[in-house]
Amino acid sequence: MSVYAGPVQVLIDELGRMPGVGPKSAQRIAFHLLKIPAEDANRLASSILDAKARVSWCRRCFNISEGDLCGFCADEGRDSSVLCVVEDPRDIVAVERTAEFRGRYHVLQGAISPIEGSDRSSSASASYWRASPTRAWRRSSSPPTRTSRARPRPCTSHAS
């Protein structure tokens, strides 16, 4: 028997299916949503539905896109001979923050991990490996990596 009314329990269960959201977080979010004004909850629901309806995957690089091509693939000013392979669309943001990479991207849509059963046969990954031998990719002279992010400055204290 569920402790909460049917719709509340369904909401908690659905929120709990999201990555990184455990049972307690799902409860906290559900009760927050129940407390906010209906307009706010409707705006959230509409933005989710709108994103699902309008956003898909770029046919070239598998980044998120509102059309056939994402903004990076559609940008003629980018160097198409340099490719940055990233695990997830969120990784592109980190690379772009460096303002040093002007090539193209390929999003694998997950890590390649043979130990976990994920290999080069996933759809996004397979398209990269199929395209690679036929294209003249070159390495960037300074490939952006996770370690190339700006490091926070250490706190300094001033003696008073």
Short description:
The chain is an alpha+beta fold.
How would you describe what is shown here?
It contains 6 helices and 4 strands, in the order H-H-H-E-E-H-E-H-E-H. The chain has 160 residues and is an alpha+beta fold. The chain has 2 domains: 6-54, Orthogonal Bundle (Helicase, Ruva Protein, domain 3); 57-148, Dna Topoisomerase Vi A Subunit, Chain: A, domain 2. The strands form 2 sheets. The chain has a two-stranded antiparallel sheet with strand order 1-2. A two-stranded parallel ribbon has the order 3-4. Helix 5 (89-97) links the parallel strand 3 and strand 4. The termini are far apart.
Layout: helices, strands, pairs:
Elements: H1 6-16, H2 23-35, H3 38-54, E1 56-57, E2 64-65, H4 71-74, E3 79-86, H5 89-97, E4 103-107, H6 123-131
Parallel strand pairs: 3-4
Antiparallel strand pairs: 1-2
Helix pairs in contact: 1-2
